[in-house]
Write a structure and sequence with these properties.
By secondary structure, the protein is of the alpha/beta class. Helices cover 41% and strands 16% of the residues. The protein is built from 18 helices and 13 strands.
């Protein structure tokens, strides 16, 4: 039996889809299934944005910052418009652009079943169109992933919550969990690594099953999964097997102990890597220097705010004094610091907004890039489940055609969402002056690693 694993449009075509490579390895280790991977997100962008693919694949460390800003801004605006127009077509029951071509690529694989990994809500629209088209042609489909919703499930042959459910569906028998082989070496060479919109392939790798911290009040990424660490030898073999030199550890967070274990394993491999961390005081200069010596080039720090009251509400387990120290030590260790900043947390005041702005400007010599977002309420978070504790007075869910209901809310104090929008706009130039790299690299974080 042949299974085609599909990654649908739309998201940034910067790296191969970890979800599919991991799923392929699992199925091969636990069945006799033949699998193939088809990154239709990449294929769409290759067909539509070839000129930009060529530019991003060929820019080097001596690149022109001005040229990159111009071209990447142009690319971002074009893709934003393209995504929006095609999503509207799907909502209006029209075929999105290149649907016929991408469907033909699926059919060319002569597969028995097509399995979709839908990771981001931005992939839901095109997935729906593909599923409807495949259904018309009598092709069986399975869907899974964090962005799957009822509308998508209704168009698929089967919905599976995880890889074990998929294995049971494919083999038509109950799986003995004790007999599963989960220590799998991932094979990223099953993807067309040379085609991504980067000058050098950046391989995404997870080192753990989920976030070990799980306390941030705005987050549901961990999905209450059990935390466990993947074997270091398995990660090492995946890295060696890829024959690549740049890696992005995509865990939401990695503990200090685990980081030091990874560093010891990575140092002899002579690779470059980046990761996402919380700026906690245990990550001192000695630790960060060890990580840097092992090839760590950049960290995306979950700073979120420069106000201790807001950090407390978020339950980040950090404070701005410790964050300041960590950023300084990271810079001393020659690590590029990228900062996630979230404005508009419920009850945040204008003064607290400005406290974060001032925190960023005060620490700008230690900041390579600022990545800002505005708070959005997510179902299942502590804030959603206990709104009164966070000053949230009213939650409204509005149905949408394709996506899950839109969640809006009111607070009993602090900035309104319109005020947040205007404050961000008025401080846009201040934030951009902090950046040592083009702000558009927030959409292509892999480019930062390419340049290090």
């Amino acid at each position: 039996m042949k299974i085609l694993l599909v990654y649908p449009p739309f998201c940034t075509p910067a790296s191969p889809p970890y979800s599919l490579v991991n799923l392929s390895a699992f199925l091969k280790a636990n069945s006799k299934m033949e699998t193939a991977i088809l990154d239709l997100n990449l294929e769409f962008h290759k067909l539509k944005f070839y000129k930009y693919q060529q530019y991003f694949q060929n820019f080097t460390k001596d690149y022109s910052k001005e040229e990159y800003e111009q071209i990447s801004k142009e690319y971002h605006q074009l893709t934003k418009t393209t995504y929006s127009e095609n999503n509207k077509k799907v909502v209006g029951n029209q075929d999105p652009e290149l649907l016929k071509e991408l469907t033909e690529q699926i059919k060319d694989q002569n597969t028995d079943l097509v399995a979709f990994s839908i990771v981001y809500s931005s992939q839901a629209f095109y997935s729906l169109a593909l599923l409807k088209e495949l259904k018309k042609q009598g092709i069986k489909t399975v869907v899974g992933g964090p962005a799957v919703n009822e509308k998508i499930i209704a168009q698929a042959t089967k919905y599976c919550q995880n890889e074990v459910e998929l294995l049971e569906y494919l083999t038509e028998k109950k799986v003995n969990h004790q007999e599963l082989n989960c220590d799998n070496i991932l094979d990223f060479n099953t993807c067309n690594l040379k085609d991504y919109f980067v000058s050098q392939a950046v391989i995404p790798i997870k080192t753990t099953s989920t976030c070990f911290y799980k306390r941030c009040t705005f987050c549901t990424h961990h999905q209450n999964k059990e935390y466990y660490e993947f074997p270091l030898e398995q990660i090492k073999e995946t890295i060696i097997n890829s024959k690549q030199k740049q890696f992005f550890f995509i865990d939401d967070m990695i503990s200090k102990k685990r980081l030091l274990q990874l560093a010891e394993m990575l140092k002899p491999l002579n690779v470059s890597w980046m990761c996402q961390l919380r700026p906690t005081k245990d990550l001192d200069l000695e630790t960060l220097s060890i990580l840097s010596e092992s090839g760590l080039k950049s960290v995306i720090w979950g700073v979120e705010s420069g106000c201790n009251r807001v950090l407390g509400l978020m339950q980040k387990g950090t404070n701005k004094e410790d964050i300041t120290s960590v950023l300084a030590d990271s810079k001393k260790a020659e690590i590029k610091n990228v900062l996630y900043i979230m404005f508009g947390f419920p009850t945040e005041t204008k003064e607290e907004f400005m406290e974060t702005i001032n925190f960023l400007t005060d620490n700008q010599e230690n900041i390579a890039l600022v990545s800002t977002s505005t708070f959005g309420l997510q179902k299942g978070t502590p804030i959603f489940n206990n709104p009164s504790q966070f000053g949230v007075t009213e939650i409204t869910e509005t149905n949408r055609t394709v996506l899950e209901p839109k969640i809006s809310y009111q607070t009993n104090s602090g900035l309104t969402q319109e005020e947040i929008k205007q404050l961000k706009k008025s401080h846009k130039n201040t934030l951009e002056k902090i950046n040592k790299f083009p702000k558009e690299m927030n959409f292509f974080r892999e480019h930062l690693l390419n340049l290090c």
